[in-house]
Amino acid sequence: MTERGAWLSFPDAPRIVVPPPGPKSKALLGDQARWETDAVSYPHAFPMAPRLAQGSTIEDVDGNRFVDWVAGISVLNLGHRHPRVVAAVERQLELLWHGLELPTEARVGFLRELEDRLPGKLRNHARIFFTVTGGDAIETAVNLADFAQGKHGTVAFSGAYHGVHGGVVGLTSGRRYHATSAFHGGTVVRVPYPDPYRPVLGAQDGSAGTISYLEHLANDPHSGVDAISSVLVEPVLGEGGYVVPPDDFLPSLREFCDAHSIPLIADEVQTGLGRTGRMWAVEHAGVTPDLLCIAKSIGGGIPLSLVAYRDDLVKELPRGFHLGTYRANPLALAAGTEVLKVLGEGDLLDRVRKRGAKTVERFRSMASDHRALGDVRGRGFMIGTEFVKHRSTREAWGERAKAMRSALFARGVLMHTCGAWDQVLRFMAPLTIEDELLERGLVAYEDALDSFETTAPSRIPAMIGRAPQGRHRPPTQPGIPAPRGPPVPSRTFPE
Fold first, then answer.
1. Which of 46, 169, 187, 327 could join 181 via S-S bond, C-beta 3.0 to 4.6 A?
2. Is the pLDDT of residue 486 over 60?
3. What does pTM read for this prediction?
4. Which among 83, 249, 92, 91 is positioned nearest to 157, based on CA atoms?
5. What is the mean pLDDT of residues 174-183?
6. Same domain flag for 90 and 182
């Protein structure tokens, strides 16, 4: 039970006062549809217009309050408007907003704080290269590795998502992203990611098959690969389906890279900063990458990204090696310094590991009663629940996952899909979510599962309106609307 006065979120969420999207949300969605590009996607998944956010909750313009299990796609690990981050940004607002590359107190203070938080051998032995977005950080890291090695050829894995801007789109595995990009630079060597649930190269038995294939690519003069300049990996697949690889994968990958003098790049854009219950996901395996890509939660919602690379990787970089006007914005740096401090204090990460393990068990318990839920996996607060048509064939069921997303939305819980067929619902709530809100979300998830079986009783009414102990109970909420996925006004968004 979260202590009285410790709540960061709206205590009465989820609260549905009008079936979403309500009339005010519909009006704003219609205005957006008239003026903004067809390429936007999130209004299709979550047709509502946010007005205010607190902690792990969002209120829309119609007064509905949602439990947020999306967290800006892992951007808000500390939740919306964490009071300490807000205070840090407000202090910086009175000083400086844009400072180029000059050594401001915000810049040096961030670097000092980050140095103590880096994993393994990077700690106190790293140089920092500031960038703007996650994709920008990945592209910079690959360029750094290529420059250091004097050759081109990046190993990237199936299911990988490393951004879609510029040349980095080639490192992302999804064909749909390649089809809309005019930039196809770089040399990418694609290797199957060791997925124990959908195994290729024997991944159900560990990572030996993947490493053997990499050895073939590196050693066989007829492998078809001319050079390997770096290996780029997500410690846990993000957009690819929240896939946790076998425990031996990262250590074996580190050994392979060391044996062939190949830099290892860890993309911790989504897995980093406490998401898996450690500051960095590579720490679960005791592995130190040569380059570490950091973005998303580091800015607390303000764009900020960077690459931390081994200080002996390159002797010297030419000035202007990689440019960007908004790199290391002072407001973002102030937020980032406070994010690092909050994550490094107390028992927050320990609680994420423990609560995450319990949450996995809750989802697995639900899977025992619902055969459409084929697999549950995860670390910390990075949990994937995969839907299949048949457990024996493991045929992906993206339609059911998206129907679940709509059913949860109608119940006041935001949860998003991922995976090659959008068949995985991913739990990525803020690490600071209150125990009661986590429980209400789990009850809503199970109720949504039950809603596809007409005989199942609803568990939701008993949860709606429950306030934390010691607080005034909010008014009783109206009934939860039936699951549905209402269209955005004035436009049809194709799936």
1. 169
2. no
3. 0.89
4. 249
5. 55
6. yes
